[in-house]
Amino acid sequence: MEEDQNYFETWTINLPILSLNADKHTMGTRVPPPCPTPLICDGPAMAGLTQLIDDLQRLSEDQDSSDVVFICGREEERIYGHRIMLMARCKSFKTAKRGELCRIPGCTVSPAAPGTPTPVRLPHMHPEVFRQFILYVYTAKIVLQDSRVFEMMTLAQDMGCGELRAACEDHVIATLSVDNACTFLTAVMEIKEKGGKDLKFVELSLLFLFYSIIDKILFRCILT
């Protein structure tokens, strides 16, 4: 009982709150880079921010300097990264113990030859979703789509990126409608069928979706 209680204290999902602006969002939500210092975001001090983001995006695509390679999906597609960036942005790397590379659920880390990237196998992960995640890690930019948003939410949870998981939750709340409710539900059920993910998190995702639907119904009742 105590173990389950600790689990739910750690794996909470922000349930939706009724919002009058809920229907102003589109099907794909772009998450902009956060402003480091809101008071000076529009000032000359931030003049180099755009160039910095462009440089970091190029770094995310640089295989020669990478020291980690993620092998994703049945196709074993290789997606490269830099451990120092992952440690700065992802708790699954930041909290790894001495001798560990990372603490990603369901991954397998293999020894690497000197001078080559360390392989991290993620057989349950869709390559395109992980590629979008890596881009977010380096640039804080991402486009969320209904069919993959719960997979991205689960990945954000596994990697320890709370801001991205919150953005996924906001996307569901903002874009949920009668037309795409089945798309969201199918996406969650596909994660469950694939396996490799914590069943409790999938159940919480379904609960989150249920409350989001109820929120929309209440919203329409208020308007009518």
TrEMBL record:
SMART domains: BTB. It comes from the Eukaryota. Residues 66-146 form the BTB domain. Pfam families: BTB. PROSITE patterns: BTB (PS50097). InterPro entries: BTB-POZ/Galectin-3-binding, BTB/POZ_dom, SKP1/BTB/POZ_sf. This is BTB domain-containing protein. The lineage of its organism: Eukaryota, Metazoa, Ecdysozoa, Arthropoda, Hexapoda.
